[in-house]
Design a protein that fits this description.
Length: about 80
């Protein structure tokens, strides 16, 4: 009977130890990538910056699409091929 309790204590200790180890790994990985309450403002600034850059690139692509699909551009290409 006493052996069963010892075995149960060992198993519970092992499970708690493994859980604590995994939590520590997750915490260290999150800290390495700069995730945390202190870096929240930095991440928001980075997202805003990337959103603005993305919008600028979308506008540039739209201009290029407009240029390429113009009939004058096609005519210039045909002339250049001659």
């Amino acid at each position: 009977m006493e052996n069963e309790y010892v075995l149960m204590v060992i198993m519970v200790t092992f499970i708690i130890g493994m859980s604590a180890t995994e939590m520590l790994k997750h915490y260290l990985k999150a800290r390495q990538f700069g995730v945390g309450a202190a870096d929240d403002r930095h991440l928001k600034d980075k997202v805003t910056q990337l959103s603005l850059q993305n919008q600028a690139l979308i506008e540039r692509v739209q201009v290029l699409e407009k240029i390429v699909t113009e009939p004058e551009y096609e005519l210039k290409q045909q002339i250049n091929q001659l």
